[in-house]
Amino acid sequence: MAVIEEIVSAYGVSPYHIKQVSDRLYKVSDGQNMYALKESKLTDRTIHVWEQVYHQAYAYNLSAILPVYLTERSDLYVKMGDLYYYLTPWIIDKNPGQERAVTNIYEVLGNVHAKTKQSVSIDTEPIIQQFTRFQKYCAKCQNELLTYVELFEQNRFMSPFELQVCTHYHVLVKVLVELNQLTERLKDELAQEQKWNYSLLHGNPDLSHSIHDHNAYLINWEEAAYDNAVLDLSLLLKRQAQFHNRQNDHWAEMFTVYKDENPLTVSEQYLLSIYLMDPSDYIALVNQYMTNAGQHTMVKHVQLLQRAFRRLEFGFHWTEQIENDASEIESET
After folding, report:
1. What is the structure's pLDDT at 231?
2. Share of the chain residues as helix, strand and coil, in percent rounded to the nearest 5
3. CA–CA distance from 30 to each of 23, 36, 57, 99, 158 (Å)?
4. Measured distance CA(129)–CA(135) in Å, rounded
5. CA 172 to each of CA 59, 71, 118, 146, 271: distance values in angstroms, whole numbers, following the listed order
6. Average pLDDT of the chain?
7. Which of 28, 29, 268, 307 satisfies CB 3.0 to 4.6 Å to 17 for a cystine?
8. Burial class (CB in 10 A: 0-12, 13-18, 19+), 72
9. What is the mean pLDDT of residues 42-53?
10. What separation in angstroms does the CA of 160 have from each of 283, 292, 294, 297, 317?
11. Given pLDDT bands bounded at 50, 70 and 90, which one contains residue 332?
12. 3-class DSSP state for residue 121?
């Protein structure tokens, strides 16, 4: 613990007690206050973006970003060898329950995205061409899946993985049809809008990176970036969707909480649905199985495919619900 003592002393903290909570997290007490010392994964390449997060937090009053302490030299971190450490208040997480946790992360993420948003004019033609190539890729995926299903059905005894693909196939077809239609609509919107919104992104949003005291905070900004907010949202939602959870419907039902903080354009809503229904991971797993390229056991193959399928199924139901909600709003007005 001598190294940890040296690091916290750079903040003017005299440690009374130090407890290692995980591989990279230490709980430090000076007898009066408690601190969280994080051994980060930051590098010389990423440290500057991470620092910018806290400059933005100050400039835009982003109270959702848990602050870091300054060292006695007014630095945001301490570097020891190749490692970067930073110190934050120790917050005792008051578990608010699933529904409140979803609301909180939507609110704080939407607040950060909205307050840091900037719109720039862009040439959308290259982006439209990329989505045209994506449509061709999806059409190829559908043909490949049909080929695989026909091949598997010729087997007298299908493996668990093959049976899984055959069972999923009818849902995958619906996903790919909907995906093609959404992509066509997105291309039409991009041709008219010709702008792109940039926001500060967390880069790794997850319920485990939100903590709840009197306020909700987002922690661990080590993968922060600047791009469209939809990238953060898709990562958050895909992560929740891969595991079977009866609470997953809450994410679509409560999405208005996010949109109240950071309204999305029509093209951004299309883009989010497209990201959620991207079949790349699923197809890659099937191709890996067919070429024996992976090192996974059959059980692991089946688990990974089921998770990929849940993400696609979630994306399809998400799109249905969002479109239904939009139709109801239009009919009311």
Report:
1. 97
2. 55, 15, 30
3. 21, 12, 27, 36, 62
4. 10
5. 45, 53, 36, 10, 19
6. 92
7. 29
8. exposed
9. 96
10. 17, 15, 16, 12, 25
11. low
12. strand
User: CATH classification of 98-332, choosing from 1.10.1760.20, 3.40.50.2000, 3.40.50.300, 3.90.1200.10?
Assistant: 3.90.1200.10
Q: What is the enclosing helix (H) or strand (E) of 216?
A: strand 216-218
Residues 6+ apart with CB under 8 A from 44: none
- Please state the domain extents for the chain: 2-89, 98-332
For residue 196, the SS3 value is strand
Asked if residue 329 has pLDDT above 70, the reply is: no
Angstrom distances, CA of residue 303 to CA of 155, 161, 168, 242, 313: 22, 9, 14, 10, 15
Tell me the C-alpha distance between 134 and 149, whole Å. Answer: 22
Rounded CA gap, 39 and 184, in Å?
45
Q: What is the pLDDT of residue 99?
A: 84
Residue 69 is given by DSSP the state: P
How many other CB atoms are found less than 10 A from the CB of residue 95? 9
Coil, strand, or helix at residue 41?
A: coil
Q: What is the mean pLDDT of residues 204-225?
A: 91
Mean per-residue pLDDT for 301-309?
Answer: 94
pLDDT in the model for residue 326: 59
pLDDT score for 194: 86
Which range has highest mean pLDDT (149-158, 209-218, 274-283)? 274-283
- Using CA atoms, how far apart are residues 77 and 93, in angstroms rounded to an integer? 24
- DSSP codes joined into one string, 221-283: -TT-EEE-HHHHHHHHHHHHHTS--GGGHHHHHTHHHHHHHSPPPHHHHHHHHHHHT--HHHH
Q: What is the CATH number that goes with domain 2-89?
A: 3.30.200.20
